[in-house]
Amino acid sequence: MSEQLAQVIGDGSRLALIAICNLTSIGNKPYATHLQFAYKLAKDNPEFQFILFTPYRVTIADFRNRAAEAALEVGAEYVMFIDDDAILLRFPSAFKKLRDWDKHIVSPVYYVRGYPFHPMFFKHADDPSMISVGKGLEFYDDFRESGKIAKNGLLEVQALGCHCTLIKTEVFSALEKPFFLTAMHNTEDVYFCMKCRDYIENIEIFIDTNHSVGHLLDPLWIDDSNVETIRRLHKELGMTEVADWTRAYRSKDEELVK
């Protein structure tokens, strides 16, 4: 048994592994929603016992590989990856609702935390020349307008980022190690998805467009380089008085604990 299988939630007979990375500093906003998520895990899924996997400060690829290996070791049916900067405010029942889709790999909608805030999932490149030079994927920026979303809200994608992702453990049984690998031109989760497409026939990689998970932005600072931009932002948001932005942040905090 891995020493990093730290805690268990629930009393069911079926096993699932919840892997939460610890790459950045602890933030009260995402972790408050993680607690809400943990409460819903046991309440919504009484047939499951959830093993929490939280290794300390390893690389993201190493973290995901260790989690997959631990899930195989204990015979868990699912691995659910949750990044430490994921805000689950509007999707506390993520495990149950994603599991109900019965897909190999499935995630809600979430976005890269940097301008222009691409969705963290990919389609085949529209430009054929990009495929010929080995860059066959591009961000699925037009997914809402693509006409490819099914009536039930599911969208098949070529690859996705594992910010908040449910994976059937049987997928890892069909792959050679390493499952995740960060390289010069790809992130570890895109590598994993493309490896699944190479090794597993009819692999199912889907986005549930009915739900979205937040991605915490880096804290701002203010200096001569950005003060005018931040002033304009506050004016546009109607937050020109101290009481305005204090009230705005407080309402967000209250929303988190409802």
Number of helices: 8
What's the shape?
globular
Return residue spans where pLDDT drops below 50 for at least 5 consecutive residues.
Answer: none
User: Class of the largest domain in CATH?
Assistant: Alpha Beta
- Binned strand content: 15-25%
Quaternary assembly: single chain
What this model shows, in words?
- It is a single chain.
- With 258 residues, this protein is α+β, with helices and mostly antiparallel strands.
- It has 2 domains: 5-219, Spore Coat Polysaccharide Biosynthesis Protein SpsA, Chain A (Alpha-Beta Complex); 220-258, no CATH class.
- The chain is built from 8 helices and 13 strands.
- The strands form 3 sheets. The chain has an 8-stranded mixed beta sheet with strand order 1-3-2-4-11-6-12-9.
- Strand 2 (14-20), helix 1 and strand 3 (48-53) form a beta-alpha-beta unit.
- The relative contact order is 0.16.
- The model has no long low-confidence stretch (mean pLDDT 86).
